[in-house]
Amino acid sequence: MTKQFADGARRLAGASGRLLGWPPHWFWRATPAELAAILLDEANGADPGITRSQIEHMIESDNNGR
C-alpha cells in the first residue's frame, strides 16, 4: 500500500465514521462508488474518481507479491 493511498484511506475512514456514524468494517466493505454516492453531490460536478482503466494500469504496474 502506498503512503498516498494509506493517507487517503485513513482520512476517508475517519470521515465516514464522523459524518456517517459508520464503524470501520462498514467503510472497508464499501466500494469507492458507494462511498462517493453517499458523500458527493454529482449534480454539482463532483470528481468522478478513478476509472477502471486507471485501476487496471495500477494493477499492471504493481510488483507487490510477484
Describe this structure in words.
It holds the Pfam family Phage_TAC_6. This protein has 66 residues and is mostly helical. It has one domain (3-61). The chain has helices at 3-20, 24-29, 32-39, 52-61. It is globular and about 35 Å long.
Short characterization:
The chain is mainly α and 66 residues long. The protein has four helices and no strands. It has helices spanning 3-20, 24-29, 32-39, 52-61.
The total count of strands amounts to 0
Q: Uncertain runs with pLDDT below 50, 5 residues or more?
A: none
What's the domain count?
A: 1
Mean pLDDT: 80
Global geometry? globular
Order of helices and strands: HHHH
The main β sheet shows up as: none
Please state the CA-atom Rg, rounded to the nearest Å. 14 Å
State the share of residues found in helices, binned by percent: 55-70%
Number of helices: 4
Distance between the termini: 15 Å
Determine the structural class based on helices, strands and strand pairing: mainly alpha
Beta content: under 5%
Name the features.
66 residues; mainly alpha; 4 helices; globular; Phage tail assembly chaperone; Phage_TAC_6
Helices and strands in order:
Blueprint: H1 3-20, H2 24-29, H3 32-39, H4 52-61
Organism: Aurantiacibacter sediminis
InterPro entries: Phage_TAC_6
Protein name: Phage tail assembly chaperone
